[in-house]
Amino acid sequence: MESTMNLIDLGYSLDLRPVGDDTDKFIQELMADALKVGGDITVWEYPSGDIYNGWVIPSSWKVNWAIIYSRGCSWAPIWARNHPLSVWGYSESFVGELEFCELEKHIFTCADLPEAVPYHWKRYYSPEACSWGFSLPYEVYQTLFKERESDYYSVSLETEFTPGSLKVLEWTLPGKLDDTIILNAHCCHPKQANDDLSGCQVVWDTMKFLAEKPRRYTYKALICPELLGPIFWLREQWSSYLKAAILLKAVGNNALLRVQSSFCGNSDIDRMASTMNLVTKPFRTLYGNDEIALEAPGYEIPTTTFTRYPFHGYHTSIDTPEFINPKRIKETQSCLQELLENIERNRLVTSGCLGVHRLSHLGLYREPEDDEHGLMSGLQRDSVGGMDILSLAEKYRLGFRHVADYVEEAARHDIVHLGR
pTM of whole model > 0.90? Predict the structure, then answer.
């Protein structure tokens, strides 16, 4: 999977749902690809009907047919399912006649995007929601029903539910430390590319990048259906070694890449993003997704999100692979890789000498007009008692890499010592 778009195209060609054969196929393809790279790969399964904290793993579901007939047209069909989003997810079968005022309660449109089929997902997480329904482009809805409010309609909808299992792909790249950073994206939205196959692509390419690098930290990719995947995975796999998580959510469109901070807003990853001049916003003010599971009481894993949300066509049939800009995928990946490389370089800096050292003959002196003059002047004193490189970057308002380069050079001359 070397092409930037390959994983996106694969996922878009399938009918991805929280539980289903096509989602299983997607996970299997990723597992086979990860095995070529190395690391520890596990697919966790949670059977339909499994319950945890009120959340329920759904069954596999498919639509056999969905048709609306009109009495005013001699009971001829006026609409039939023509897109995977046309029937509300996990709708139950229904056959019957309705007045328009009743049928209207079962139709979902989006007037702001009149040509798009909107995505209706509530029954994935709330089975008690309205039992069936159809999603229509607003312009089709207007054409079919605008002057037929007094008409009667007949609905024929047949769906099937079969037991299955929700899959969570866990790909782990061990490091020198057990401390683990999670990279997460979701794979459960049918026929939607940016949300979140774009995130899956960035996670996958980043794991391949990390696989070729020496690592202090352990990295764990979680590719799974949103919410339900992390909720059930954490029930059994939570560990105190899970130190941080980064979510990649809708990152292939042309909007500015922004960072949503963890709940406390002061994790090392939050702080590192700030030193990289990335636009940051508070917890759940940009996007709401799997951070709610990872930050939940008892787990409290600091979770930072990379996103370009909102975007045109969100949760509609307009979210196609053609909408994705490969440059934005690569830009997101480069940004994430830089952040993780910085996290890898962050060390505790402690004093390595008695008294003040002359620095000019070591190439460490900086003139008063230089940006690094303050760092040079304070480093030896800052290191008494210990201060990490990230804190030094924040204190002197310098880019992390500039500070790390200077501190590492000072350590080579035993001016300071670097911790693990």
Answer: yes
